[in-house]
Amino acid sequence: MEAQAWTAIGLLAATLIGSLYFMVQRMDATNARIDALGGRLDARIDELAREVRGLGTRFGAVEAKLASFDERFVLIHQRFDLVDRRFDQADQRFDGLDTGLADMSLKLDDHVRRHAS
Fold first, then answer.
1. Rg of the chain's alpha carbons, rounded to an integer?
2. Per-residue pLDDT reduced to its tens digit, 56-68
3. How many whole angstroms separate alpha carbon 43 and alpha carbon 79?
4. How far apart are the C-alpha atoms of 81 and 1, rounded to whole Å?
5. Per-residue b/e over 13-29, b at no fewer than 16 CB within 10 Å?
6. Looking at residues 35-60, what average pLDDT do you find?
7. How much of the chain exceeds pLDDT 90, in percent?
8. Stretch 24-30: mean pLDDT, rounded?
9. CA 88: distance to chain centroid?
10. Distance set, CA 84 to CA 76, 80, 87 (Å)
11. DSSP secondary structure string for all residues of 35-100
12. 37 to each of 28, 41, 48, how far by Cα in Å?
């Protein structure tokens, strides 16, 4: 019976050592794959960082263009203010003409009344 126990212990030990060897080999292979993927990932991250820096340059150009638009809008706003003042002046002149025409209408009505009686 003692021989059977030692045989079972030997088989169990061999199985455990074989399983341990197999698991170490699988972990090494997985580690190698992870290292390869890490290298690829680092390269992709570096490429994306370069693209982001390039986008920063492009956004700077867009900001400069928008600033020039702001300057142009200020000039356009000033021109609209000038046109608005000119319309106000024309409106005042029309108001003066309207008042003058109303006075003339009253005078004409008085004249017609004087001669009609």
1. 48
2. 888 888 888 888 8
3. 54
4. 113
5. eeeeeeeeeeeeeeeee
6. 88
7. 41
8. 93
9. 41
10. 12, 6, 5
11. HHHHHHHHHHHHHHHHHHHHHHHHHHHHHHHHHHHHHHHHHHHHHHHHHHHHHHHHHHHHHHHHHH
12. 14, 6, 16
- Say which residue the tokens 């820096």 belong to: 53
User: Which two three-digit tokens encode residue 67?
Assistant: 């600033």
Structure tokens at 28: 């090494």
The amino acid sitting at 59 is F
Structure tokens of 93? Answer: 């002149």
DSSP summary character for residue 1: -
Q: To which H or E segment does residue 6 belong?
A: helix 2-116
In three-state secondary structure terms, 117 is: coil
- Tokens 């340059």 -> residue: 57
Amino acid in position 100: G
Token pair 């169990």 is at which residue?
A: 12
Give 66: exposed, middle or buried? Use CB within 10 Å, 0-12, 13-18, 19+.
exposed
Task: Provide the token pair at 70.
Answer: 């702001």
